[in-house]
Amino acid sequence: MAERGVRWGILATGGIAAAFAADLVAASGDGSAAGPAPELVAVASRRPESARAFADRFGVARAYGDWESLAADEDVDVVYVATPHTAHRAAAGLCLAAGRNVLCEKPFTLNLREAEELVALAREHDRFLMEAMWMYCNPLVRRLKSLVDDGAIGEVRTVQADFGLAGPFAADHRLRDPALGGGALLDLGVYPVSFAQLLLGEPDGVTASAVLSPEGVDLQTGAVLSWDGGALASLHCSIDGATAATASVTGSRGRIDVPSGFFHPDRFVLHRDGRDPEEFAADPADGPRDSMRHEAWEVMRALRAGEKESPLVPLEGTLAVMRTLDAVRERTGVRYPGEAGARYPGEAGARYPGDEPAGVTG
Question: How many whole angstroms separate alpha carbon 70 and alpha carbon 319?
Answer without folding.
Answer: 26
